[in-house]
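Hi V.,

You were right to ask for the full record rather than a summary. Here it is.
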Amino acid sequence: MADLLKRVNWPGIAVIAGLLVVWQLIGSSTLPTPVDIWHGFLDLLGPDGGLGEALLHTIQMVLMAWVIGAGAGLILGLLIALNPTVASWGYATVDMLRSLPVVALIPIAILVWGTGELTEVILGAYAALWPMLINTAGGVRGVTPRLRDVARTLQLGRTATLFKIVLPATGSSILIGARLSLATALVVCVVSEMLGLQSGVGNQLVLEQSGMQPARMWVYVLLVGVLGLIINAGLIRAFRLLFPGIALVSERSSK
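Predicted structure:
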């Protein structure tokens, strides 16, 4: 118990508590207080609130989009970094496509694929692709030549070098790319729901705004932030459990 209490960021909690107190004092009819938002949260938890269904939909869409986008970004990043031919043909295309604002593509995607789940997953996956690709390619290219000399000394093949040398040394970059991809997928999926899709947290946020329910609207706004914190922490925990060796190298290299 004592160790757990030591790990708590008490100064950070004090700052949050202070901000909540100030917020409560300056609240108005247009800016609901934390107490009002709490009551709105309790209302949304009811059988007719729709909070659980919207939250479950958004989580499912974000995770699906992230798995597809980050997985593709990992593979493409490795190909670009390890294969000069792929890099020479693909880098210009990558630079062009990743410069396109995803938000501007949302109306086009809705016209092509409609307002269903497919559109949300495609947009989220497209947005999640680029952070993973760029971080993976940069991390692989940043592997020190000494480690490659070790692989040649040990007479490791390409596959063995990739899994035993390159990926462990690139673990921190891959983890950063995965976290950025996850956060980007969350933002794009919520914005997509706000701009035309018919389900999810973003859609409910817009409905509460249209219904002149600011307290309930703020519940969904804050919920997006809490959701981002939770899935980011879950990703880090899963990375440590699934790849303990790579996670250890990543944590040491980041210190």
